[in-house]
Amino acid sequence: MLDVRIHDKYQIEFKTHYRFKKSEKSTAYALEIYVFASNSLDLNPGSYPKYLFYRDLQTYLRLETPKIALRHIVSGRQNPFENLAAGFQDLASDPSIPQYVDNYVNQLKMFCCVTRRAMSEHIALVSRKTKPGSIDRLVEKYLSHSRNILQQYRSLRACVSYPSSGRRSFNLYIIIDEYRSLFTEEYSYRLLNTLKKKGLANWDAHKKAILELIVEETDYRKSQGYLVAASENDSNERLVHQTQSLKKYTESVLFLKTRSRQEGKLAQQMIFGVAAGLAMIWATAVALYAQYKFGIFTMAFFLTLVGSYILKDRIKELVKEYLSNKLLRFFYDQKIKICTTARKNRIGASRESFSFVNDEGLDNDIMELRNRDEMSQLGEYSVDEQVILYRKKIEVFQTQFDQVYKDLKIKGVTDITRYSVARMTQKMGNPKRQLYITDGEDYKRISARKVHHINFIIRYSENGKSNLKRFRLVMDRGGIRRLEEVSLAS
């Protein structure tokens, strides 16, 4: 499954979700992103080398958040709260053991992630329901389950009381307690907005019940000395900053660590060696022939020797360039080890590469999809383009993964790739234009805008199946204006 969206004014995000194949020892995925950019933007092999491309690229690999119903967060077999409580008890038994501390931290983070997703899924379920009776039951369950989850979490406070468990562990519990209260309030407001659109007859009753939960949490944070709530006459920057920081902190348990190294180094050195060897064979052969033909102490031998050594260096460079172009294209730029958050276990590998490709190097299905609009079908009259190809292959080792994450119901990984188009805007002109219109009797001048179209074609492969999608990024010098998916049938 592929999601493409605008991340911010200058970045586009490609998010690919891959599911594990439990029956296989490893699961492999592939992603290819083709970027079609006009020559006027000055993106070419000379002006846009690999290091600049990778500077514009951000990649993340994260675990899919376990999907658990809100009612099963603190009840049911092997619920997340049981794992959390076990982590608290282990820490209370001996806070000096690093493994207990690490597990305690990870369980806190994961419990927040699972709860957030459960709340989001529950609200999404409410939005899909149309029968008032079903909606009423879901709202009641949201309120009761949310209160129960908060109560159960706060019942663990005694297990990490200071100083028995250490100040750091206790402070982390307090911070997470504050964060849980804040995101419970956030999702409660989302539920209110969802219900408001339904036009229910008992809307006022639902609003009153949900606001009671929000007020309860506001009063609780006030009693604990936490950040209270958003204020109408304040920028609320501290509240937003802390909430976002805690969101990133808790979600860090899902992000996998990577360690990269250049691929093809050995092959590159072998190519250099072969080139040097061939050049030396040439120089030695010429020297021996000249010695045999002219003798050693002659001007002809001297000039031949000098000429052979001059050509030797040129031959070395030509052979090196030729073999590099022919052989190194089979290698990727980087090979990346995928590890757990603590970098203790290797659970996968990834390879990625960047290159410019010409039309002859594009597959027929890529060219066909690119030429689906009228401007592209104008042939020699259309705008010349440079084509960038970014390739990535990901492999997850199922056995190692299951050993590390055996207690979690993780069904897949999400690959996140963000690409900055800010560099493209540097060569774009003034977007403001003037046009004229007439009604037959008079005319007037109107404002118009000049935009550029950057086309993206994405091929993603999973379980032996390949899928293609095309998107058009509309932008000007001020940044991205919109993103359009181009239908395969258009």
Cα shape: globular
Number of helices: 12
Low-confidence stretches: none
The radius of gyration computed from the alpha-carbon positions, rounded to a whole number of angstroms, is: 31 Å
How many structural domains can be distinguished in the coordinates? 3
Question: Percentage of helical residues?
Answer: 40-55%
User: Strand-and-helix sequence, N→C?
Assistant: EEEHEHHHHHHEHHEEHEHEHEEEEE
Percentage of residues in DSSP E strands: 25-35%
- Largest beta sheet, briefly? 8 strands, antiparallel
The pLDDT mean sits at: 85
The strand count comes to: 14
Q: Which structural class matches the secondary elements?
A: alpha+beta
Strand order of the largest sheet: 5-6-7-8-3-12-13-14
Measured distance between first and last alpha carbons: 21 Å
Descriptive terms for the model:
12 helices, 26% strand, 490 residues, globular, 3 domains, alpha+beta, eight-stranded antiparallel beta sheet, four-stranded antiparallel beta sheet
Structure overview:
It is a single chain. By secondary structure, the chain is α+β, with helices and mostly antiparallel strands. It contains twelve helices and 14 strands. It has three domains: 2-55 and 332-486; 70-255, no CATH class; 264-330. It has helices at 50-55, 80-93, 98-128, 132-154, 167-196, 203-224, 237-251, 265-294, 299-327, 364-370, 398-404, 422-425; strands at 2-8, 11-19, 26-38, 57-63, 257-262, 334-339, 346-357, 385-397, 412-420, 432-438, 443-449, 452-462, 465-476, 479-486. The radius of gyration is 31 Å and the shape is globular. The mean pLDDT is 85.
